[in-house]
Specification:
It is built from 13 helices and no strands. The chain is mostly helical. The chain has one domain (2-282): UbiA prenyltransferase (Tetracycline Repressor, domain 2, Orthogonal Bundle), CATH 1.10.357.140. Helix 3 (37-61) packs antiparallel against helix 6, helix 7 (107-123) runs antiparallel to helix 8 (133-153) and helix 8 runs antiparallel to helix 9. The longest helix is centred in the last third of the chain and has 31 residues, at 194-224. It is globular and about 50 Å long. The chain starts with a helix and ends with a helix.
Length: 283
């Protein structure tokens, strides 16, 4: 159990709650209600497999940077708690689990699964050469609702692309905020995070704009999908959580970053999923 806890902490398994609710949101929208339990199960397996593989690969790719950063030097790989071989076994094993789940869903899900996994693996290198790394991470998570839709429908027809656009800007915003913790190290290491290039103040302003765009796209999702007005009421709660992130994280005070990052963003993804579910039930 102690070894399992090390692996779960290495891949930040608890943050699966960021992406899984959006995958289920896409599935519920495609089904216009609750999909079958078997589809529900394999979507969950696919999301856990894809995210675990992507996070383990990220830890392998960033091992040298994590070891040189005082904030992350205690992580399992640079600290020696997990070997490189073990990390690779986890990466490949989780990838195979993802492909198995995609195969169980439908032919289109299986066909696009290698591209989805390649994108999530490739993200790990983007901070080395572009400040768009935050948007690319958003693109990785934006696959979640699209994947949920494909899992249920087996096609891309009528997919509300504004939902994925909302996820892209939501993730880009909170990842920019979180990167403020490493702005100094990233600058010294030559990494291209926005805080390392623009400073904390400028990056927080861009994150606020990104979150404003995310809310616009989430509102458009409700309109395009003809959701009940209760969706917009609950979406207001997500907007308050976004505002609270920016309220408690200031250029001169990053002490409540973990509350802003983990608690608020977990709440946002769950609330938006709940809003869609409730709107579909009462329609």
């Amino acid at each position: 159990m102690a070894r399992l806890a090390v692996f779960l902490e290495m891949i930040k398994f608890k943050f699966t709650v960021f992406a899984l609710p959006f995958a289920l949101t896409g599935a519920f929208l495609a089904a216009r209600g609750v999909p079958s339990m078997m589809i529900f199960f394999w979507i969950t397996v696919a999301m856990v497999g894809a995210r675990t593989s992507a996070m383990a690969f990220n830890r392998i790719a960033d091992k040298s940077f994590d070891g040189g950063n005082p904030r992350t030097s205690h992580r399992a790989l640079p600290a020696g708690d997990v070997s490189g071989r073990q990390a690779w076994l986890l990466t490949i094993g989780a990838a195979l689990l993802f492909f198995l789940a995609a195969w169980q869903l439908n032919p289109l899900a299986l066909k696009v699964s290698p591209f989805a996994l390649a994108l999530t693996w490739g993200y790990s290198y983007t901070k080395r050469f572009t400040t768009c790394c935050h948007l690319i991470l958003g693109l990785c998570l934006a696959i979640a609702p699209l994947g949920g839709w494909v899992a249920v429908s087996g096609h891309l027809s009528h997919y509300p692309w504004v939902l994925s656009l909302g996820v892209i800007f939501w993730v880009a915003g909170f990842d920019t905020i979180y990167s403020c913790l490493d702005s100094g190290y990233d600058r010294e290491a030559g990494l291209f995070s926005l805080p390392s290039r623009l400073g904390v103040s400028g990056s927080l302003r861009l994150a606020a704009i990104s979150h404003l765009l995310a809310m616009v796209f989430f509102i458009l999702t409700g309109w395009l999908c003809h959701l009940h007005w209760l969706y917009y009421l609950l979406l207001l709660a997500a907007a308050v959580a976004l505002w609270y992130q920016h309220h408690i994280v200031r250029p001169g005070d990053l002490s409540r970053m973990h509350l802003a990052f983990q608690t608020m963003n977990s709440a946002i993804s769950v609330v938006i999923f709940g809003a869609v579910w409730l709107a579909l039930i009462v329609n």
